[in-house]
Amino acid sequence: MDVNKMKEMIGFMDPEGRVDEEVFKGIPEELIHRMYRLMIFTRLCNNKALSLQRQGRVGTLASVRGQEAANVGVGLAMEPGDWFLPSFREYGAQFARGVKAIDLFTYWSGDERGIKPPENSRVLPICITVGSHLCHAVGIAMQARIRDEKIAVLSSSGDGSTSQGDFHEALNFAAVYKLPVVFAIQNNGWAISVPFGKQTATETISQKAAAYDIDGARVDGNDVFAVYLTVKRLLDAARNDHRPALIELVTYRMDDHTTADDASRYRKREEVEAWIEKDPIDRLRKFLSRKYGWDEKKEEELQAALTQEVEETVAAFEAESPPEPTDIFNYMYSEEPWHIREQRDEVKRTVGESSR
Amino acid sequence: MRHVFRLPDVGEGITEAEVVEYLVQVGDRVKADQPVIRVETDKAVVELPAPVTGTVTETPHSPGDTVKVGDPLLVIETEEKAVKAPPEKKEKPKEAPKAPPPEKEPLKPPKVAAKEEEGPVEPAKKILATPHTRRLARELGVDITAVKGSGPRGRITDEDLRETAKKKEAPPPKGPTAAAVQAPATAGFDFEKYGPTKRVPLKGIRKRTAEVMVRSVSTIPHVTHFDEADVTELQKVRDREKTLADQRGVKLTILAFLTKAVADALKKYPMFNASLDEATGEIVYKQYYNVGFATDTEAGLMVPVVRDVDKKSILQIAAELNELSRKARDRTIELEDMRGGTFTITNVGALGGAWATPIIVHPEVAILCSLRAMEKAVVRNGEVVVRTIMPLTLSFDHRVLDGADAARFMSHVVALLEDPLRMLVDVA
């Protein structure tokens, strides 16, 4: 267990999009194009949702801008049989796992129907409570171990979650029971207004793995190849050898924590600008033009096609009928207990039902 | 088709916002999602994007206006024709205000943000003018509704306003849109009765200063303690160490020595480094020593804060002070550099004046004012001698501190200033 190795930053692609040929042999060209497409789609969806929020057409939401590589790399690294447990700033990973973009808009409008992942997708609903789903991931990994299923489980959460008790409980259980689970930490530098330097006394998050005697890795989260290959390697080890792992993806939240936040009150513009220079999408675009002759025309076509897709998604979202006020009671129990029924009846009496 | 863009709840549960500026003007073509207006809520300044593509036909507010959630912000004429009934928009029950509307609301609170409807936004006459022109109108004290526009479609130009102002046709305008102090004290005063006046809105730093000062004097019972320090020796020390400071590119000031003396006095008398938490009825003793410096800038009074003065050398304090006051004057200073102060020093020495009674920066409990050090004839051991004397005044919060505390605090500061070597021997 070499702590110093855990602290080393893994990166394959430099900011100019140059890559050591040897390293990325394992990634076919088609997959690289898929990564790029998903990253752009994620950003366009995200920016559209922010715009709609400012127009009063969706509610509060958390922007993922800047973290597209760390998102998409994680999402694509999983096998179909693996389970994915996202937190609330993971749209890229969710899309990679088949979650529909329309659900993003529906969910952030306060409509619980938007949180239901597609059938058999093995994606859990977004976890808003910070860090609790790391324990859920351990539970799923434990059942897989008991049933001797050859799968892995991946939970993804932010740097703030590593200060929760749940984080330590989850890592400890995973280590003690040798469970096939990977904890991915999107370290975007800020837990709302708490900077990483105040989050933990350790230099990195990845080195915390040593305390539980599990694998630890630290990756340049704006390098989609490094994210994809490292997560894939750790998932394989979890699946085949029951080795749990902690992976830190070093990235940056370019926007406010949510639309109800104003990050300019606690961080400097220069810091944000320095990270915009390291934009993960720009980096992959430079790689594509270097390696596959990606040009402005192709870029424009892709942007236009994806923008169209986003606009159609929004149109479909706005054409949906509204949720029933009583829908909030629908998704907790498979059989409704008496006290929930009473509350449901009371809501019906006082608020009534919509015309759906 | 006419599309009214209404102020949405852009935060979590905000009820109103202040218009900062329109980014477009009447007649402009806008595309959906293009930023059209900046508004300030109690949480942030946010840019709101247009919900539809079309031409701007109305911008019913002026910068500084307060707008309630659901009120119209902008009207856009889209190219779609309203032939058939517009598709039923998704109702959002969470946005429907449940409380009955207040009785005398001129504009009914809408059920849904961003929804088409008939009828004008404002029954008043439509004013065509850019935000810049509207601001100029307020600055010149011209009632823009009384001005006839000479521009295309009757748009009011800057020239129109200047003409009107010159002719003095304008009736007395309304008061500034957002006065810090509730206006009644001056309501009914006809300032123009005895001669011409000029009206400038109370805003920005001026407005914030007004608010802070009113809060301070209306909550803190102020007492001011006066004393003098003989800084003859200190000036010699300063002159001697100037060479070293100059080599490091630092302007070494008496203020830096004073700050160090204050840091020591704050440690010795921690209640001067406290705040009164009125909510809990507790005195909060801060265990960090951050001194704010009242700084006069072109934009107004700013108070940059030097942190942890107890841990820094006099030269370091001087260097940071140089840097922060430069940033304050350039207005490149970050908000964070003006927060977290635990005590404030205001140095009006250079500007003259014999004495002053400073107002405490709420919620701190004391402020020290240093005035111009001057040669004076004083009596020492029965002889009249010439010494350099610096007046000092200390305003304190009498809820937390008493006159005796102020005397002890001040005496400690004065003792250190009069015997600078003691700083070497006794100050940590």
What would your notes on this structure say?
The complex is a heterodimer of chains A (356) and B (428). Helices cover 46% and strands 10% of the residues of chain A. With 356 residues, chain A is an alpha/beta fold. In chain A, the strands form 2 sheets. In chain A, strands 1-7-8-4-3-2 form a 6-stranded parallel sheet, sandwiched between helices. In chain A, helix 3 (68-77) packs parallel to helix 10 (224-241). The model of chain A has no long low-confidence stretch (mean pLDDT 94). With 428 residues, chain B is α+β, with helices and mostly antiparallel strands. Chain B folds into 2 domains: 2-126, Beta Barrel (OB fold (Dihydrolipoamide Acetyltransferase, E2P)), CATH 2.40.50.100; 208-426, 2-Layer Sandwich (Chloramphenicol Acetyltransferase). Chain B has 8 helices and 18 strands. In chain B, strands 9, 12, 13, 14, 15, 16, 17 and 18 form an 8-stranded mixed sheet that branches. Chain B has a 4-stranded antiparallel sheet with strand order 1-8-6-3, with no helix packed on it. A 4-stranded antiparallel sheet of chain B has the order 5-4-2-7, with no helix packed on it. In chain B, helix 5 (254-268) packs across helix 6 and helix 5 (254-268) packs across helix 7 (403-418). The termini of chain B are far apart. The A-B interface holds A 48, 51, 53-57, 59-60, 109-110, 256, 259-262, 264-266, 268, 317-322, 325, 351, 354 and B 5-12, 33, 43-51, 87, 89-95, 113-114, 334-336.
